[in-house]
Amino acid sequence: TNSNGHYRRVLLKVSGEALMGRCDYGLDTETVAAIAQDIKDVVALGVQVCLVIGGGNIFRGVSGAAGGMDRAQADYIGMLATVMNALAMQSALEKCGVPTRVQSAIPMSAVCEPYIRRRAERHMEKGRVVIFAAGTGNPFFTTDTAAALRATEMKCDALLKGTQVDGVYSADPRKFAGAERYQELTYLDVLARDLSVMDAAAISLARENDLPIIVFNIRAPGAFAAVMRGEGRFTRIVE
Ligand code: UDP
Question: How much is the pTM?
């Protein structure tokens, strides 16, 4: 965190599903534009921002494997899906005047930069939003794990997990009226109670590296900036 106690650098994980908006597949340009605007507001606060974008709105490896495809091959398709989403997000951010770079864990030189850790840091120091695409570059992983990995490498102050609800609940709040929202949880709470926040690999990596995870509602306009100001509703996952 910087001298005002504010966040200096954060990583926002945006799932592929968050980009679908009201659609049930693919990209909803209005939704992508709204998230881009929220990111712009956070950049305007002086926070360095990087992103990991998922691909579940287009393709998931497990679904491909369930259909009979080789799992690793299906996962590579999933990683390519995240590159498409990253390019869409880049386009939306630049449309609202935010300078960006996409870096892919799978080199794709005609389309974006390859992932280079030190270069990514330089981009952020210059005020650019860096969008990390292609997950970790390895099959059998998820973009949640990629988010924990990149956030650690980039020495981020927090990993922001944008979801469809405003934090972690004792049960699905969309199904159970009595579900209670946690203000703070420990990494071990999440692992032991198998709370569906992020996969266990991502939680473990965050725990080992003391990386706070903040779960908030990415669908609420302005919520990202509110969380950065310490306002609004969210759940913090810490030691
Ligand atoms: N994927 C992968 N390795 C990674 C990250 C992602 O193989 O490091 C593949 C995996 O098949 C996954 C797909 O990419 O299903 C899309 O990512 P994810 O499901 O994490 O996206 P999200 O749920 O965030 O939309």
Answer: 0.96
